[in-house]
Amino acid sequence: MLIGIGCSNSSDKSSNTFFGGKIINPKSDYVILFNKDKVIDTLFLDKENKFIGEYPNFTEGLYYFKHGPEHQYIFIEPKDSILIRLNTWDFDESLVFSGKGSDKNNMLIEFFTENELEDKHFYNLYELQPADFKAKVDSVEKLKLEKIDEFLIKNPEISKNFIQVLNIAARYPLYRKLENYPIAHKRKTHSENFPVIQNGFYSFRDDINISIDSLKYFIAYNDYVMSRLYNTVYQQGLQKHTDDFTTELLKTINTNINSESLKNTYLKQTVIGHFYRKSSCSINKDSFNSYFNLSSNTDDKKQVEKLLSDVEKLQKGT
Fold first, then answer.
1. Roughly how many angstroms between the first and final C-alpha of the chain, as a whole number?
2. What is the 3-state secondary structure (H, E, C) of 236-275?
3. Helix, strand or coil for residue 281?
4. SS3 assignment, position 16
């Protein structure tokens, strides 16, 4: 049951969890709180562009809130009282958390904004040789791990689940750069061949589970997993925008992802995403047939079948 702050029937408000804040230059009159793909609450702004929600029996975990076209993550634990303040003109950079539970979320958003800056910094570094590029990644990772250690010393009672999320937010965008390196280096150097990768370049993979269904809506995790799967197919010499690449990627997803739910999600994203990126409405029957054979989600298959039906109508001159 979701209730507003002014109408709680709870006799012990201290056991409830609060999420609220203020939006500067709002894009709409509400904020939506999500857990995975489910709406937890729709929180309307008052005349001062403030909002608040109160929740009994809240479940710890990674959530995200959306306002206008943008969203951001928030880790909430029972009895937290988290307030946000953000300006939509500079959404991520202006976002600040306050209240009980704010320290962990300020740390999380700090890593998120750092990752955006690092994407720009690393763009030119893809020209480096593998060992030099790996050294650059390792040096940045070392600084992030030191920052996490300092945070944990100051917050010894922090949730183990949050520590996992924080490590993913800090490290997986760096690991994604290592997965992207072979194809990015080839393009940047205009080489016909992929660089020779030394042993240990992908040693971090030993500690990563790419089949955690509960993290499929966390972009740092999702982006890393897909980059790793793409890298696996690139190494076979296939070009990204070809039908053979799509078919092979579907097979790679099926082989490497153990979670059925996560596998179905990636299969659907791939077959539809690759189709939309093509400049024509031609249908690659092999990739779609592979999708229908590999996916176990009936609803997803019906959506894809509807897409194919619509495309066939368009091709008849409509």
1. 48
2. CCCCCCCHHHHHHHHHHHHHHCCCHHHHHHHHHHHHHHHH
3. coil
4. coil
pTM, entire model:
0.89
Task: Give Cα separations from 23 to 90, 153, 251 (angstroms).
Answer: 11, 32, 44
CA distance 154 to 104: 11
Model confidence over 157-198: pLDDT tens digits? 899 999 999 999 999 999 999 999 999 999 999 998 899 999
- The Cα–Cα gap between 87 and 260 comes to 39
CA distance 305 to 297: 12
Read off the pLDDT of residues 220-250 as tens digits, 9 standing for 90 and up.
Answer: 999 999 999 999 999 998 888 888 999 999 9
Angstrom CA distances, 1 to 4, 61, 78, 105, 158, stand at 10, 18, 15, 25, 27
In the numeric block, which tokens belong to residue 144? 């992030």
Mean pLDDT of the chain: 90
- What is the three-class DSSP state of 41? strand
Contact 82, 102 (CB under 8 A): yes
Overall average pLDDT of the 120-137 stretch? 95
